[in-house]
């Protein structure tokens, strides 16, 4: 299978870099084809500008509309087109980054901002004019996984931890980017206490990462609800008979229907640290 590995860490001797190297070697050894986008090494420009769309600076830049026009006309910036070609080639995408201030590094956010333009990442229409998103879209049929390191302990990022449960922290990426564009989302690979990892513990962490990425095409994805699968009404609000009494992020998992959750119930963690 074909895998695109997108990584965002500024230090080539980091824990993230070592884990990526070992995981890629294992994936290649298993027969997978790999392409990589190391954003810091590439000196990726994360800033959306008019130059991305060959836009005439004398006119007002409406980013969504102009980006979609440039996609249709073939006038997107070459670096954007190169990343879209990688995505089109891949059967699956692995995105690796350290968690900074509860989100991805700016360079990675800028990769999504610039590459996922209108008509490609969003604003994709069905024949009836409705929007293809949350389970449909340009990237439907592909799989996606995050590999995320963070400084907190596993317990602090658990269901009652002060840092927040990690599947909820990552919901904007898993649901709002990957699932939105149609990709099936695998549970994340989490590396806790990353800034305190002792050398003797590295082999165990590397083995866990390799084991998880090796299941990229076989493990069950997160059971997100599709927008057009009948769970939502015409306002895109969950129907009353779906997961009654469940609110917030947890309601958008299909397995919430069969669980006896109350309004304050905890969602079972789907990402073992």
Distinctive features:
globular; Rossmann fold; alpha/beta; disordered C terminus; six-stranded parallel sheet; 8 helices; Flavoprotein-like_sf; 273 residues; oxidoreductase; single chain
Fold topology:
Elements: E1 2-7, H1 15-29, E2 33-38, H2 39-42, H3 63-73, H4 78-89, E3 92-98, H5 106-115, E4 143-149, H6 166-169, H7 171-179, E5 184-185, E6 189-191, H8 202-214
Parallel strand pairs: 1-2, 1-3, 3-4, 4-5, 4-6
Helix pairs in contact: 1-8
Describe what this molecule looks like in 3D.
By secondary structure, this protein is α/β, with parallel strands linked by helices. The chain has one domain (2-222): Rossmann fold (3-Layer(aba) Sandwich), CATH 3.40.50.360. The chain is 29% helix and 11% strand. It has helices at 15-29, 39-42, 63-73, 78-89, 106-115, 166-169, 171-179, 202-214, and strands at 2-7, 33-38, 92-98, 143-149, 184-185, 189-191. Strands 1, 2, 3, 4, 5 and 6 form a six-stranded parallel β-sheet that branches. Helix 1 crosses helix 8 (202-214). It is globular. The two termini are 26 Å apart.
What is the CATH topology? Rossmann fold
The value of Rg in angstroms is 19 Å
Strand content range: 5-15%
Structural class: alpha/beta
Report the uncertain regions. 260-273
CATH architecture: 3-Layer(aba) Sandwich
**What is the total domain count?**
1
Look at the structure and give the CATH class.
Alpha Beta
CATH superfamily, by name, is: Flavodoxin domain
Sheet bearing the most strands, described? Answer: 6 strands, parallel
Average pLDDT: 92
In sequence order, what are the helices and strands, one letter per element? EHEHHHEHEHHEEH
Q: Rough shape?
A: globular
Number of helices: 8
Terminal residue distance: 26 Å
Overall number of strands: 6
Q: Helix proportion of residues, in percent?
A: 25-40%
